[in-house]
Specification:
Rossmann fold, alpha/beta, six-stranded mixed sheet, about 300 residues, globular, four-stranded parallel sheet, 12 strands
């Protein structure tokens, strides 16, 4: 394998590097990169400029305030990048809220000297784009053939899953609402509607290939989903439960059919769904377990998802 010194400022990119057998080439990470086990020992090259432990509503206000003033949500450690002297930096220019963006990385590199550094920016909008990012990272690492094999394995697993959950005409496909943020309400877009379809459901609010939109409680009520799946970006199951505490007393919440029928589920939105990398396959498996109880079991309960 071609030797690189890789800094990944994106959790999904870190997981892609790992899938391509390049963990030993990673020299730095983002503050959110925590998979696979062991990467947390690498130095963190960035940190958030807002309080990410605050309640979701406060995080939303802080993010919108800083973005309105053109203030970045993340700060790159210029000195550390200079010491690490990476030959390859992986970042993104899809979402200013999710991770360090390309402009911040380029600004940081202007302040460092030393080796020639290649910057690869990833911005997948749907599943096909996710596979292309794996290919792009593989080519940058000199592992194009390995990337092709990884993509083939991931696509094959999804095809097997889709075949296993094909509904019969009598039962049909359950109608699903995937919630990416609770306060205010946001539904999951991009690749998530495709995962829902592969898992044998129909996404009633998200649109494949489009960014996640904000919605109102009225929108959620009108959608009248059979199943509601909560997957807040960056939140694990325990944190999502704590965020729901003030929500479940709302009349709008209690009047939802999925709530009254006990069809609300919490997933680990930190580890799954919101990371456009290899574990989107596991994310689809989680949806299949939720939508087809007793029929699908890939072993993700209770760590990956739980009933509300």
């Amino acid at each position: 394998m071609t030797g690189h010194r890789i800094v990944s400022l994106l959790p999904s990119a870190t997981e892609i590097v790992a899938a391509l057998g390049g963990l030993d080439q990673l020299v730095g990470r983002s503050h959110e990169c925590d998979h696979p086990a062991g990467v947390e020992r690498l130095p963190s090259c960035c940190h958030p400029t807002i309080n990410i432990d605050a309640p979701g509503a406060e995080i939303d206000r802080a993010v919108k305030h800083q973005l309105a003033q053109a203030i970045s949500i993340f700060q790159v450690d210029h000195d550390l990048l200079g010491r690490l002297q990476p030959t390859l930096i992986l970042t993104q220019d899809q979402c200013e809220v999710c991770a360090v963006n390309l402009a911040d990385v380029e600004s940081a590199l202007e302040l460092t000297t030393g080796v020639s550094t290649q910057v690869v920016s990833l911005a997948p909008a749907n599943l096909a784009d996710v596979w292309k990012t794996i290919e792009t990272v593989g080519q940058a690492m000199g592992e194009g053939d390995e990337a092709t094999m990884v993509i083939h394995r991931l696509e094959s697993r999804l095809q097997e899953l889709a075949s296993a959950v094909t509904p019969d005409q009598a039962s049909g496909r359950p109608r699903v609402a995937c919630i990416e943020w609770i306060d205010p309400l946001m539904v999951a877009g991009n690749w998530v509607p495709e995962l829902v379809e592969l898992a044998g459901g129909v996404d009633v609010l998200g649109t494949a290939g489009r960014h996640s939109p904000w919605i109102t409680w009225a929108d959620l009520a009108v959608a009248d989903a059979d199943v509601i799946v909560l997957m807040p970006c960056g939140f694990d199951i325990e944190r999502t439960r704590s965020e729901l505490a003030p929500v479940i007393t709302r009349s709008e919440w209690q009047q939802l059919r999925a709530v009254s029928e006990g069809q609300v589920f919490i997933t680990d939105g930190h580890q799954f769904f919101n990371r456009p990398g290899p574990r989107l396959v596991e994310s689809a498996e989680i949806l299949a377990e939720i939508l087809h109880p007793g029929r699908c079991d890939s072993g993700h309960h209770p760590d990956g998802w739980q009933p509300l």
